[in-house]
Design a protein that fits this description.
The complex is a heterodimer.
Chain A (H helix, E strand, L loop, with lengths): L1 E7 L2 E7 L5 H8 L18 E4 L2 E4 L12 E3 L12 H8 L9 H15 L5 H7 L11 H20 L1
Parallel strand pairs in A: 1-5
Antiparallel strand pairs in A: 1-2, 3-4, 3-5
Helix pairs in contact in A: 2-5, 3-5
Chain B lengths: L4 E4 L3 H10 L3 E4 L5 H6 L7 E4 L9 E4 L2 E5 L4 H5 L2 H6 L1 H8 L4 H6 L2 H7 L6 H8 L2 E4 L3 E3 H4 L14 E7 L3 E8 L6 E9 L5 E6 L7 E2 L1 H9 L24 H18 L2
Parallel strand pairs in B: 1-3, 2-3
Antiparallel strand pairs in B: 4-5, 5-8, 6-7, 6-8, 9-10, 10-11, 11-12
The chains are: A alpha+beta, B alpha+beta.
């Protein structure tokens, strides 16, 4: 057992876990942050994507100990109170989900994509960049629309800040 | 996953001493291969020594005609590095088609070559460019480093610290990506050194892991152009055959990927 200390959604936490605990297990089973999902558990589907120190990573493919000292943001940490993050709002407005299982990972990856590409996003880029996130319902069409829509909104909201 | 004890090393020396204390230790870099293997209980190390935060293993240096990439530098940091893009753009391209964005944020060059998966991308770059693997003990030429499936010249407890690439006159890489795993169904790295030597390496093709392709090297030495490879014949003997493709299919892929790599080389 080890004590892993990290910041999750802006809050400092210390969690006693077995050394073999994965980051996603720490988030879901110890902190009850069940918005982050486990889909394939083999690093392929992206349902478990969270941000660690600003980078979108697969939390099923990291030991909790590797996140010691890190700043982690999950799907629960991106809205400002009742106001959805622009990416969440765009997924809702564009109907970018059906069953919703892949959605938390999609949104966390999509925010990272917009941060990296800024205003340079086009449909082909979004489709390529989403290759680590698998959706079995939507055919991706509305997801791609949502990401492109959100890219515009995020630029506006950044300019306003 | 079996029980294990996790250690985070803050220096190469500390990592070596932590490794020696465990009964069956493993080094952990980005974890994008080791952790999935541990989750499947195909590996059960007693101790996992995390190299991911060791500062001396991070970064890229361009000095004259040598590009040095430290072992724990992530694919993302390699892909976006200005010196890599300037000196050997084929390496920046290789990292951009490796895994997916989340994997590229975590996976490292050192982890890739230490594991020496027969379908990994970086072994082809090292072999074609005639790179040198630096460890905490010695320097190993890429020609001597890769020794077969998941087998390298590394000794137990030896740590890769960096890879040095001679900057080539031209280099290119192309691969047929497996659509789910994103590994190379076959990938070919072509390089023309500044002294005019031609080296070609294929990954994902041979039963013994990454390999040089002498017939294509000879053809390109005579005439550096995609059409020079048209008449080359590649034997299917010793090539991988699985659900994804026959040995004959991979033999053809070696030619096609080599032609595309030459066309893309700069």
């Amino acid at each position: 057992m080890s004590t892993v200390k990290l910041t999750v959604n802006g809050k400092a936490v210390a969690v006693d876990v077995e050394d073999r605990t994965l980051l996603v297990q720490l988030l879901r089973d110890h902190l009850n942050l069940t918005g982050t999902h486990v889909g394939c558990d083999t690093s392929q589907c992206g349902a478990c994507v969270v941000h660690m120190d600003g980078r979108a990573v697969k939390s099923c493919t990291m030991l909790a100990g590797q996140a010691d000292g890190a700043n982690v943001t999950t799907i629960e940490g991106i809205a400002k109170g009742d106001e959805l993050h622009p990416m969440q709002a765009a997924f809702r407005d564009n109907h970018g989900l059906q069953c919703g299982y892949c959605t938390p990972g999609m949104i966390m990856s999509a925010i990272d994509i917009v941060h990296r590409h800024g205003g340079q996003l086009d449909e082909a880029t979004v489709r390529t960049e989403l290759e680590g996130n698998i959706c079995r319902c939507t055919g991706y069409h509305n997801i791609v629309k949502a990401v492109l829509d959100a890219a515009g909104r995020m630029k506006v909201s950044q300019a306003a800040e | 996953m079996y029980q294990t004890t996790y250690h985070r090393a803050s220096s190469v020396d500390e990592a070596v001493s932590l490794f020696a204390k465990g009964s069956e230790s493993k080094f952990l870099a980005g974890g994008q291969t080791l952790l999935p293997v541990m989750k499947q209980r195909l590996a059960g190390p007693s101790d996992v020594i995390d190299l991911g935060r060791i500062k001396e293993l991070q970064g890229v240096e361009l000095s004259g005609d040598t590009l040095t990439i430290k072992a724990a530098t992530t694919y993302y940091d390699i892909m976006t590095n200005a010196d890599v893009k300037k000196a050997i753009p084929a390496i920046a391209y290789l990292t951009s088609v490796l895994g997916d964005p989340a994997v590229r944020y975590r996976g490292t060059i050192g982890g890739s070559i230490a594991n020496n998966d027969p379908a990994a991308d970086f072994p082809a770059a090292l072999l074609a460019l005639g790179a040198t693997v630096k460890t905490n003990k010695r320097s190993i030429a890429a020609d001597d480093f890769f020794q077969g499936l998941f087998t390298t010249a590394l000794e137990d407890g030896e740590i890769i610290t960096a890879v040095s690439f001679p900057v080539p006159a031209k280099a290119g890489y192309e691969k047929m990506r497996h659509p789910a795993s994103r590994f190379a169904l076959t990938g070919v790295f072509v390089a023309q050194t500044k002294s005019g030597e031609v080296r070609v390496a294929a990954t994902g093709a041979s039963q013994t892991g990454v390999m040089r392709v002498g017939a294509i090297e000879a053809a390109l030495k005579a005439n550096w152009s995609p059409s020079a490879i048209d008449s080359v014949s590649i034997s299917a003997n010793g090539l991988l055959a699985d659900i994804h493709g026959t040995a004959e299919y991979r033999a053809n892929l070696i030619k096609v990927m080599a032609q595309r790599a030459v066309a893309a080389a700069r």
